[in-house]
Write a structure and sequence with these properties.
By secondary structure, this protein is mainly alpha-helical. Helices cover about 70% and strands about 0% of the residues. It has 5 helices and no strands. The protein is globular.
Amino acid sequence: MKHPGEYANITLMNAKKLAQGALIAAIYALLTFAVLPLSSGLIQMRVSEALSVLPWFIPAAVPGLFVGCVAANIIAGAAVYDIVFGSLATLLAAYITRFLSKRGFSRWLAPLPAVLINAVVVGFILYYVYEMKELGISLSLCILYVAIGQTLACYGLGMPLLLLIEKFGRKLF
């Protein structure tokens, strides 16, 4: 039988994870909104995607990034398919990043799932939902533009964030 104090610890840990996830979601949405229209469109760099490295350290970042992406896409006025599938792409990338961390892969792979998955999924969304094909822009070009923006955000901003967290993370978490 568990001691009554143990239940308090479990509840406190759940509250801490919930708070971490909510904070990550809020920061993601805020960063996305703060740099609109740079965060959306054919040529985009979502600086909030720098947070895609957080699942490397914090399990609560997986749902936090997903909720933040949903909120950001709604705020940005995205199409329903973008809200659903773009956010699911972020969720999948966050889950894979967490998986890579737990399996001992190199930290340099932490941003890669967000780059690759979002490049493909958001590239398809841009091409089919936002009808870039009607403007004569190819699917491969849509994917390439998203990949470039994601690489700049996830590696250019996310890797320095990851390295800072490795250095000072014990004090933060």
